[in-house]
Amino acid sequence: MTRTDPLSDTRTTPRRTVLISGAAIAGPALAFRLHRHGFAVTVVEKAAAIRDGGYPIDISGTALEVVRRMGILPELRDAHIDLRRLTFLNGDGSEVASVDPRTVTGGVAGQDLEVRRGDLTGAFYTAVRDDVEFLFNDSIDILDQSGHGVDVTFRGGSRRTFDMVVGADGLHSRTREFLFGPEEQFHRYLGYCFGFTMRNTFGLSDELMMWNTPGRAAALYAVGDSDDGEHALLNFAHPRAPFRALRNPEAQRGLAASVFADAGWEVPGMLAAMHDADDLFFDAVSQIRMPRWSSGRVALVGDAAYAPSFLTGQGSSLALVGAYMLAGSLDDRDHPAGFAAYEHNTREFVTVNQDQVGEGDATLFPTTARALEQRNDMLRNLSAMPPAEGRPAHSALTLPEFMPMTT
Q1: Whole-angstrom Cα distance, residue 374 to residue 125?
Q2: How much is the average pLDDT of 74-100?
Q3: What's the confidence (pLDDT) of residue 280?
Q4: Do the Cβ atoms of 57 and 117 come closer than 8 Å?
Q5: Is 369 helix (H, G, I), strand (E, B) or coil?
Q6: Which residue did the predictor score with more confidence, 155 or 109?
Q7: Residue-level pLDDT at 197
Q8: CA distance linking residue 40 with residue 186, whole number of Å
Q9: What is the signed CA dihedral for 155, 33, 285, 354, rounded to 10 degrees?
Q10: DSSP line for 98-163
Q11: pLDDT tops 70 at residue 387
């Protein structure tokens, strides 16, 4: 367990205490803002430390203003990955088109960021570690709201009481399950499964190559040219979300192997790497859609409340904006009013970004031969066009100027 003590507060009234479950993106961002608004914050994380590495993630639109107000925008600019091109391939490995990534993602050159996940989480942790208590190698086991606060029993056996608890524990949030029941009732499956694995063995540098046949895609992409800079993605259409496979790595490997059994290009090597990988990430492409994001003294933020799916490219941005809005909404309100304001002022932004992808018809992953040819024609046309100037949904919310307390 690693612990850093919160700073002392000279105010006469006790600081409200908040426990955040999850130390990926939404959790530390929320901890930073809550501390600035005068709360005493504890973050519990089941991993032994902040996780480094991971795939590149996008920060765009309104979320850029969140990181600017956190004071970490210059650091993230230095860590920015300039992906140079996306190359799309036919089933036989021949080239369909090579395009500027921004024509597909809607990114704005010189403004939007793409950074390694570990660089982002590391920047957040550095920004809050001296002001916030972190409990690593632990998690919430029981939440009890029957008293005047939230009584928490941790997996490690300790018990504490907090004024509020926030679940920032991702798509498969246990906090959400404690509050609202099984995930399946909020899980909107988008018709695909995907897996990440692999190190750089193909010599790529700042580029992505994607192979497609109807209902199947395989991609290799690299950030820089280091040995740990390349990732592999296998994505495939599947009629139902394979919930059992999501809990069983061997079932995940078997499912991918059966779907791609006759695939060419570099897919056999990717399957072999997936078989041997000890850090395989596999999941359903899905969203979380909930009628409300809080119950009593417990709220949800980020993917736990409104995962948009990686097809939108907006997961991290929604987490950052949600964290900012939740902390600011609680600044001068009690928890019922604060949670209500958070949802009222954030839900429209969340919905318009979740709606950027339709159910089962993602442009990059067509499921029929006709749809694939239509997509290829679109890509050939895009290759001759300049990048678009962003997507309105990414900037659909103007951040309020919540005033942090001064000490």
Answers
A1: 44
A2: 88
A3: 80
A4: yes
A5: helix
A6: 155
A7: 67
A8: 31
A9: 140
A10: EE-HHHHH---TTTSEEEEHHHHHHHHHHHHTTTSEEEES--EEEEE-SSSSEEEEETTS-EEEES
A11: no
